[in-house]
């Protein structure tokens, strides 16, 4: 089935409530899902939580809870956040779901049977924050490169996945599929690291028990990343027509897992690989990584309370070019809300509404009442909208530029009102052109700001347009 779009977010660790970083990835996925839906494709948007492993076990212990009991208490926070942000997902997967456990065991057994898993001893360094192994050369001044914490020395019996066997196959795959790792600079980073060598991956632990036991040796618990990555496969196992994912969105912290380990597992399991892994940048606060312990975080309720849901969605996608880092500031959000959503879009809608409202139903009948009347009425204004360019930008996931392009057209419409002065000339044709253009703008903005878009569409499709409430109240 080509006419489909399967898009995924990472499954988040439910060790705390979600923040703007998680919201960013999830909103991007939602925007692209909505756009593809609008284009007539069958869409599946997947998100969820990554619940096994030492990190979750440790935090649950801190709260005197069983791991599952602990994660159960956090899942509603994620679901509530996505609901408030209007994320229209098709499945919220939890790695503790029964069907997922089954898939993980099946794949492990399959890979084991073909000889890609062997037993050995692991000696090395582990960061529980990352749930990842590091070698000496990965470290920064002896500490975890991400968390800047001390690493744990591990020595235990473990099963290894023959990751090294896939090094050349991966490089070959990247060459044949130039869109597999996006953007290009990230592909370079991955290739540089890959060319330095690829070690086999330890995929089981015996020192704790919160996870899925290996089907061929129950004393061993499956490594949390091996388990987690397979969620993307579990989620559509019953809807096979969606496989493989068309787009998997992650930030750079976990690009190695998605661009190297994940495709190697799929190659070994003889499952078709995803089309594209898109790696975006980080949101920071005062130029520092978001971190609850240092008080540098903004949760979803705080985000929405600044200027509403649509302004939050708009801001996150408009503020930074896709793939780059960005610094979050409440004032920057308010500025975009005031200057772009209120002054440009809100103003256009309210002016045109105000001009059409007194004309009542006869306005509608004149332009839409008779057969073919719309076709007969040429719309010069709407022709200034570069739809081809917008489609291309969407295809390249350049969502900030899509918004730029739509808002350039909003500017053109505002200038049109100003120059044509329909309140003086009483030229209804101009109002017709504006009305149609506003409906088009609403349609194109639907993936980004669905609530506002639906309001505008409803209002401007009515036979009798009436003056309604302002869309965006300015925040002073
Ligand atoms: N559980 C793993 C993912 C497993 S996927 C098979 C994990 N979870 S996480 O909760 O740490 O989420 C990481 C992801 O959240 C990032 O890759 C990114 O999508 C999003 N972000 C978290 N913080 C972020 C920022 N500060 N900025 C942008 N995105 C951020 O890793």
Give a topology summary.
Blueprint: E1 4-12, H1 20-38, E2 42-49, H2 54-62, H3 67-84, E3 91-94, H4 98-113, E4 117-127, E5 132-134, E6 152-161, H5 167-176, E7 181-182, H6 184-195, E8 201-202, E9 204-205, E10 213-214, E11 217-222, H7 224-229, H8 231-234, E12 247-251, H9 255-268, E13 277-280, E14 283-285, E15 288-289, H10 300-307, H11 309-319, E16 326-328, H12 330-356, H13 360-369, H14 373-376, H15 387-395, H16 399-420, H17 422-425, H18 428-445, H19 450-461
Parallel strand pairs: 1-2, 1-12, 2-3, 7-13, 12-13, 14-16
Antiparallel strand pairs: 4-5, 4-6, 6-8, 9-11, 10-11, 14-15
Helix pairs in contact: 2-3, 10-11, 11-12, 12-16, 12-18, 15-16, 16-18, 18-19
Bound molecules: 5'-O-[(L-methionyl)-sulphamoyl]adenosine.
